[in-house]
Each structure stands twice: as structure tokens, then as C-alpha cells.
Amino acid sequence: MKLMLLGCPGAGKGTQAQYIIDAFNIPQISTGEMLRNAIQNKTALGEKVKLIMDKGELVPDDIIIDLVKARISEPDCLNGFILDGFPRTLKQANALEQQGINLDLVIEIAVPDQVIIERMSGRLIHPASGRVFHKVYNPPKEANTDDITGEPLIQRSDDNEETVRQRLSIYHEQTEPLVTFYQHKSTSDINSIFKKIDGTQTVAEIQKQIHDLILYIKKEKIA
Questions:
Q1: pLDDT score recorded for residue 221
Q2: Choice among 2, 13, 71, 195 that is catalytic
Q3: Tens-digit pLDDT profile for residues 137-172
Q4: Is 123 a catalytic residue?
Q5: Is 119 a catalytic residue?
Q6: For position 101, what pLDDT does the model report?
Q7: What is the reported pLDDT for 189?
Q8: How far apart (Å, rounded) are the C-alpha atoms in residues 32 and 88?
Q9: Which of 42, 69, 91, 156 is catalytic?
Q10: Contact 31, 110 (CB under 8 A)
Q11: Less CB within 10 Å around the terminal CB: N or C of the chain?
């Protein structure tokens, strides 16, 4: 099962990806992690990537594709994988297919912008422990104060409303066209590799829908 999760920042992709990893025993392929590992291990490719990133430039698609191809050839990907962080654009999606890497299922976890803004801009963090609170959904007993230590809670810079809106804008501009791209990979909605799930549901409800979708696709592949 080769699949990808789409969704704006804060949609809950990380939570659902971990569920899929545990439930179906397939690895998550993170392009960001692969780049960091290549640099840390000082491979030839890693040295090349480091030079590019040190200049503040984007790593070219062909390098990312090479990393993905090498990773999915490893034994733990025999039964499938989840792509994380790639493709992000139409150019990257086309490049992926040109290399013969075709996905079985693309799931978009769809959440309205206003809900995302409320989710993310309300988060409060206790830096020392990593405990997470929320101004609305999980407020601390005392405003802006950790329940256990009494120490102040902070809001991460990337969780402030202005930053969240900017990240959403980038997502809509760059990544949403992938929805149309994958919607057109079939002749009917029933057989489409693209499926949209309402991300405002509970975590358990979303998990059940994803679980059922994966089982359905696996059954269709066998038939």
C-alpha cells in the first residue's frame, strides 16, 4: 500500500500517519528526515545537499526523487509506505510518476481554515516538559501557567495567528493543486485513488474511515 496524506498544517496528518504505521506495519517516508540523515551521515549526496541548504536554496526535485527511490527499495517498504512531505507541488508529483512511483491511495484530511487557526493559535506549550495545552479545548487550571510546575506557558512563534494564516496561504497556493491532479487519476469517483475525509471529526472517527479505505484498496488490488 503506497499512500500519501494531504492536509494543511494542523489538520492532524501526523496523528493519522502514526495510526497507519502501527495498524498496517508500513514505514513513514519523511523527505525532511532523509535529508537530515544524509547530511549527518556525510554521504556524497548528503554533502551535496548540505552545500545547497547552506546557501538557503531549495533541494532540487531530482535529488529528492533519488532519495525516495533509494528508500522505498529497502526491505521494510516491501508492503508499502506513507509519503511525508513529498510531493508538495504539481512539478514534484509529475516527477514522482515519471520515475515509476505510483501511489495507491491519496487521502486529504480537509479542515476549514478558521478551524485550523483556532486549533493552532490556541496552543500553549510548557517548554521544559513539552506538555501541550489549548486555550479552548484543554486550558490550564490557571491562565498561561503549567498545571504541574506552575511555570509559564509559551506560544510557539509558528503558532501565532499571523504565521498560521501565512502557512495556510502557502498550502492553498502550492499543495491544493495536487488534489485536482490526483482526482483526475481515475475515470470515476468510486475507483479514484483520491479520497477526502472530514478532518473536523474525532480522531477515532477519522481513523476508522482511513482504516476502511486502506482495507478496501488492498482488497481491490488483490481482486
A1: 75
A2: 13
A3: 899 999 999 999 999 999 988 888 998 999 899 889
A4: yes
A5: no
A6: 86
A7: 53
A8: 12
A9: 156
A10: no
A11: C
